[in-house]
Amino acid sequence: MEDILARAQKVAKEAEVFEVSSEETQVRFEANRLKQLQSNQSTTVSLRIIKDGRVGYATTTGTGDSQRLVNDAAETAAFGSEAKFKLPDGAKYPKVEIFDAAALAVPIKEMVSLGEAMIAAITAHTAGIMCDAGVTCGVITVRLINSRGGKATYKKSFFGLDIEGNLIKDTDMLFVGDSESSCHPLSDPNKVTDLVLKQLDLAKNRAKSPTKTLPVIFTPNGVAGALIFPLLSAFNGKTVLEGASPLGDKIGKLVFDKNFSLRDDPTVAYRPASRPCDDEGVASQRTPLVSKGVVKGFLYDLQTAALAGKKSTGNGSRNRGSLPSPAPSALVITPGKTSFDEMVGDIKEGLVIEQLMGAEQGNILGGDFSGNVLLGFKIENGKIVGRVKDTMVSGNVYKILKDIAAIGSEARWVGGFLQTPPFYCKGLSVSSKG
Amino acid sequence: MPEIDDVASSLADELKKKKTDYLGARFEENRTSHITYRGRGLESIGRSTASGGNVRALIKGGWGFTSFNDLDKLSDRVSLALEQAQSAGSGKSRLALIEPAVDNIPSGVAQDPVSIPLAAKKRLLDEYNEIIWSIPQIKTSNIGYSDSRKKVIFLNSDGSLISQSRADVSLRLTAIAAKDGEVQQVGLSLGSRGEFKAIQGLHEQIREMSRNAVGLLAAPQAKGGEYTVVLDPILAGVFVHEAFGHLSESDFVYENDRMREIMVLGKQFGAPLLNIVDSAAEPGLRGSFKYDDEGTRSVKTYLIREGKLVGRLHSRETAAKMNEKPTGNARAINYRFPPIVRMTNTYIEPGKMSFEEMIADIKEGIYAKNWYGGTTSMEMFTFSAGEAYMIRHGKIAEAIRPVMLTGNVFNTLKNIDAIGNDLDMNQGGGCGKGGQMPLPVSNGSPHIRIRHCLIGGK
Questions:
Q1: A370/B contact by beta carbon, under 8 A
Q2: Among A363, A374, A393, whose Cβ lies nearest the Cβ of B183?
Q3: Nearest Cβ partner of B404 from A62, A64, A361?
Q4: What angle (nearest 5°) sits at the alpha carbon of residue A135, between those of residues A133 and A140?
Q5: A-B Cβ pairs (cutoff 8 Å, strict)
Q6: Alpha-carbon gap, residue A97 to A127, rounded angstroms
Q7: What is the predicted pLDDT for the residue at B2?
Q8: Which of A99, A306, A341, B127 could staple A85 via S-S, CB 3.0–4.6 A?
Q9: What is the CATH number of the domain that holds B174?
Q10: Of B353, B233, B337, B347, whose CA–CA distance to B294 is shortest?
Q11: Mutate to test the interface with A, among B379, B387, B437 (most CBs of A within 10 A)
Q12: What is the distance in angstroms between the Cα of B1 and the nearest Cα belonging to chain A?
């Protein structure tokens, strides 16, 4: 890395080298049986330079040579965007706990047993169900150096459990599943499988959904799948800078329900999305996005912040070594006071949505979403009576989150990047074949 | 940097000597360039190189797989894959027999797209972006261009040693219009087997796309419910890929008895006018290749013929376990992943009807065009149109907001009651499965008509 930086400084005024190495071991089960053991090793090195005021950039994975990387970056700098930012010098980073050696010390045999235990729990509950499952552990090492003396290095462990089951009767297919991840080793398979068993219990009976406007409860998985995508783009500093975010001119204004609070938080201990600094070496911070319904801020990387006249919020993210752009680390929604059971009890006729298929295909910028209920349930007179199928819901996130019936008291991490309680929303448009 | 050809040939003898049911290795090197615009300005321009490999072993039905981009100590990687397979296996290995092949397939493009100077690529994209921004009420735009040149060497314990090169070009443009808090967008997605020409000369198409985005601001939203829907070739191609193609991937079928009952060959899936094909053997499309990532030769596979299920897509393992012939559909997006059963070029064969005949007797229906996205859960699918129009009394009427179509695959295939004479293949986009995305594929179809299709809306 130091060699690349030295070569780069010969052709450019400023330079930054970013390296991510990962080692991962995975145990995969298919159709209820152990299928494959897998290991992946990879290292990606990215070089960003500022030459004659413009950004040049190149990346290599594998055994590419240093000089070629420098040459490629120099070629692109001729056309690169104008660098408005300064690379950070020796910044101080908060202490964020993200490494537990125990996560890497779990023997393969134990990982296999964990997978077997997950599958046993599901197949013992429901005859004929076919499960795919995985147990994954690994370590990611990040190193960054730049020509202004900036330097960052950290190591992160991760451990994950995932299971998906499918149950087929004639041509009727039921899909259930959940996952859990941590920087600690996970030793209790029941936490994940209990969630799946609950899905299976609720899906036992079939129910009919009418075509009309209905109240809907989104479970944490439902929130992640349906409501979060539109918000991600609206809070992205780039969307705001372009004037395309519906929230761009709403700082300090009450846009959402006063019980709704959302923040970006890369500092939660032992969460796989946490880190002491972002991928540009800017210190991690908690960034409030919505506080009691009022829009508080947006997510920035260095360049976007400079263009917008703001400060980076430490959200410069590089996917596989690409140029940084603003992205959330981990989103946290503040829980409310209503339990899930109270929400259900309050509804005369409505739906619970666990998985919505295709929600990300809508007009995300405008907040519209629409999707097929892949896993969802009907509520009648305060009770969940069965699974609904052939049902579409559509709505607008801004309208829904402006006036929420209730926010749940039980928050959990879903999809590795979001901690959220269930949401009880007043009225969504539902169309159904029954 | 070690040459992957040398690395591969040095390993060939070692693979044959090991005691195992199967041992394979893959090495690849890849050069890409990309340019992205967000709004008026260029957002990112860059070049990247990647190299790496993997070793895959099968013992007693259990797979070991190890990927790496450090090409030293290959013997240790082989040993690791063998150990992994040993730990995973407890049954019997079954792989369909294929003829070992020694072959060298060049990329077939006259000019490597990656080597075209970035300045020339940028000039073209600047022209396109100017056009988008020249339309009033366009708020912003997104452009993503990328190209790649890739060489993959595959070898296995049966004696195969195959080197295949390919080039790929893809372009996606989006025009975003906004007015009074309303935001609408229209996109265009294109790709080619490395021919840069395929993305040149799109100026008029891009002007029309941008105008359409503005037009949508004033367009009403369809009322949700069941409609007779006509799909254009692009969207019908997405439909055949999403709604039926994934179901014919037999890795989901072969160990699942209930799924096997659903997908029993000979079963009637649609009207006799319906024929569906997957074929990597068609030349020059983005999903085309001579050998798949297990070294199996590609063939043209009929999935549905005259409405009946007649075939499915296989890897060597799924073919053996179902006592069917391998089809050459085991594909991996890169060396980091083991190959899994994937589509290649999937299409509905053309029929006889013209577009005018197809809409003539529709009193009130929807004409859905262009692709925005699509996904499936086997039984249920959703896909999104990029543009939509009402059909009234046999004529195309007013534009409406883009619609999302959803339904049950089995019912919907049966509800296709007209197939056009105008097959067109769509080379844009890519397919995702099992975390491997975007895999180059192409989809195609003539115009098709579907009765009783569920549309999401107000």
A1: yes
A2: A363
A3: A361
A4: 135
A5: 242
A6: 42
A7: 63
A8: A306
A9: 3.30.2290.10
A10: B337
A11: B379
A12: 6
Domains of chain A listed by start with CATH number = 2-200 (3.30.2290.10), 205-434 (no CATH)
Residues contacting residue B446 through CB under 8 Å, at least 6 positions apart? B233, B236, B348, B350, B351, B419, B420, B421, B422, B423, B424
The CB density around residue B437, as the number of other CB atoms within 10 Å, is 10
Rounded-to-integer distance, Cα A230 and Cα A246, Å: 10
Three-point CA angle A362, A365, A422, nearest 5°: 70
List chain B residues with CB under 8 Å of A21.
none
Among the residue ranges A390-399, B198-207, B374-383, B409-418, the one predicted with the least confidence is B374-383
The reply to whether residue A40 touches residue B2, judged by beta carbons under 8 angstroms, is no
* Total domains, chain B: 2
Across the interface, do B44 and A322 touch by the CB < 8 Å criterion? Answer: yes
Query: Which structural domain range is residue B19 located in?
Result: 4-217
Q: Which residues on chain B are in Cβ contact (under 8 Å) with A112? A: 87
Tokens 């797979």 correspond to B63
With 0.90 as the threshold, say if the pTM is over it: yes
Chain B residues lying within 8 Å of A62, measured CB to CB: 29, 49-52, 69-71
The answer on B120 and B189 residing in a single domain is yes
Residue B275 and residue B192 in one domain? no
| Contact in structure between A347 and A380 (CB atoms under 8 Å) | no
DSSP state of B349: P
Per-residue pLDDT of chain A (434 residues; tens, 9 = 90+): 899 999 999 999 999 999 999 999 999 999 999 999 999 999 999 999 999 999 999 999 876 688 989 999 999 999 999 999 999 997 799 999 999 999 999 999 999 999 999 999 999 999 999 999 999 999 999 999 999 999 999 999 999 999 999 999 888 899 999 999 999 999 999 999 999 999 999 999 999 999 899 999 999 999 998 999 889 999 999 999 988 899 999 999 999 999 999 999 999 999 999 999 999 999 999 999 999 999 999 999 999 999 999 999 999 999 877 899 999 999 999 999 999 999 999 999 999 999 998 777 666 778 888 888 999 999 999 999 999 998 989 899 999 999 999 999 999 999 889 999 999 999 999 988 75
**Secondary element (H or E) of residue B437:** strand B436-440
From A76, A108, A363, residue closest to B46, measured CB to CB: A76
| Residue B1 confidence (pLDDT) above 60 | no
Residue B262 has its nearest CB partner, among A38, A171, A365, at: A171
Q: 10 Å Cβ neighbour count for A252?
A: 8
Residues B25, B155 contacting (CB under 8 angstroms): yes
Residue B69 distance to chain A (closest CA, Å): 5
| pLDDT confidence of residue A313 | 98
Cβ separation A36–B63 shorter than 8 A: yes
Q: Cβ contacts of residue B341 below 8 Å, gap of 6+?
A: B249, B250, B251, B313, B314, B315, B318, B329, B330, B331
B135-154 tens-digit pLDDT: 999 988 999 999 999 999 99
Same structural domain, B211 and B232 = no
Say what the ipTM of the complex is. 0.91
Q: Are residues B137 and B194 in the same domain?
A: yes
| Phi-psi label, residue B234: left if phi above 0, alpha if psi -120 to 50, beta otherwise | alpha
Looking at the complex, report in whole angstroms how far the Cα of residue B190 sits from the nearest Cα belonging to chain A.
18
Instruction: Among B173, B197, B217, give the residue marking a domain's end.
Output: B217
Decide if A392 touches B, using CB distance below 8 A.
yes
When CB atoms are compared, the residue of B29, B44, B139 closest to A243 is: B139
For chain B, give the mean pLDDT: 93
**Residue A242: both structure tokens together:** 């372009």
CA B120/CA A81 separation, integer angstroms: 17
